[in-house]
Amino acid sequence: MAKPSADHLPAEITPGARLLTAAEFHRLADVPPEVEWFANLSNPSTRRAYEHAVSDFMRFVGIGRPEEFRTVTRAHIIAWRDTLMQRGLGGSTIRHRLASLASLFQHLCDRNAVTHNPVKGVQRPKTESGEGKTPALGDHQARKLLEAPEMDTVKSKHDRAILSTLLFHALRREELCKLKVRDARHARKGVPHLKVSGKGGKTRYVPLHPGTNALIHDYLEAAGHGTDEAGALFRPVRNNRTGRLERAITADGVYKLVRAYSAGLGFEMGAHALRATAATNALDHQADIAKVQEWLGHANIATTRIYDHQRTRPEDSPTFKVAY
After folding, report:
1. What gap in Å lies between CA 274 and CA 264, rounded to an integer?
2. Rounded Cα–Cα distance for residues 14 and 257 (Å)
């Protein structure tokens, strides 16, 4: 979906006794509700996912302007859903894309821009089994990954600290990118904690693993921004455009970092696999699932259960508990 342009939103609000000029007021009043919906998505990951889904639908039906959403019918939605299935997308992916479109149309209904939500009533694919599809590393693979940045350079220290933070604390990429220097220096009952800004603006405190704590300390000392309490904790090692390193590493940068090291070890995967690895490992070692849910920042314990592989182990089957 095209992002709001200067034609729809004022580029700058002039400060003064009145926050909006008359011209700015009227320009905002004329913002199409479709653009308004997108502009109201504050979470970057949600915005990115919704934009991808809505853009895909726009390409499929040939929509070029926001106002054209008001001509969409349920038949268009069904045809798009069927095409997604033919493209081999998984049931959960298709459900998420339909949910993105449903969110847009619900906003249009609320604004009286359309009479009904055409996504309602469209049958959605059944969800797959409760097992997660993201692969988890074995213990030996996780150890190899932690040891992969071998050199005594700022980059290696940076990469080791990031890999350890992901593998021992199960953070999402966006959560890691939002960490400030001060967020790694919280103490609760004398135990170092990470302050994590999660989905939906929720904050959680995660005990900081001693090994990760030492790696972060080494990285900050080598990188030289340990005194910048309000600054980003993890930053790019190089910036070819500006040469300045104040900004945080991007989610894409974290993905590429994990991808590069794992590929070098023969099991190429993305950053989410490290979150799956940490969750699976904790549950395999009898961590309480309710505590794992809180640790991961899941709103629903059903989401946490996809990482619980103990219930799928043959040796734990009731078959072997039967005795005649």
Report:
1. 16
2. 41
Closest CA to 106 of 40, 8, 202, 61: 40
Pick the CATH number of 1-128 from 1.10.10.10, 1.10.1040.10, 1.10.150.130, 3.40.50.300: 1.10.150.130
Q: Is 8 a catalytic residue?
A: no
The stretch 95-112 carries a mean pLDDT of 88
Confirm if 166 and 179 have CB atoms less than 8 A apart.
no
Residues forming CATH 1.10.443.10 domain(s) in the chain: 139-312
The domain 139-312 is classified under which CATH number: 1.10.443.10, 1.10.3490.10, 3.30.420.10, 3.30.70.120? 1.10.443.10
298 catalytically annotated = yes
Identity of residue 321: K
pLDDT, tens digit, 9 for 90 and up, residues 169-210 = 999 999 999 999 999 999 988 999 999 999 878 999 999 999
Catalytic residue among 107, 160, 172, 178: 172
172 is catalytic: yes
Pairing state between β 191-197 and 203-207: antiparallel
Residue 197 identity: S
Q: Which of 97, 160, 169, 298 is an active site residue? A: 298
Active-site hit among 95, 96, 180, 199? 199
Which residue in the list 209, 256, 272, 309 is annotated as catalytic? 272
Task: For tokens 């405190």, name the residue.
Answer: 205
pLDDT of residue 311: 63
SS3 content of the chain, % helix, strand, coil (to 5): 55, 5, 40
**pLDDT number for residue 26:** 54
* CATH 1.10.150.130 segments of the chain: 1-128
At 279-320, the pLDDT tens digits run 999 998 889 999 999 999 998 888 888 888 766 667 677 777
Which is catalytic among the residues 81, 97, 157, 275?
Answer: 275
Whether 199 is catalytic is yes
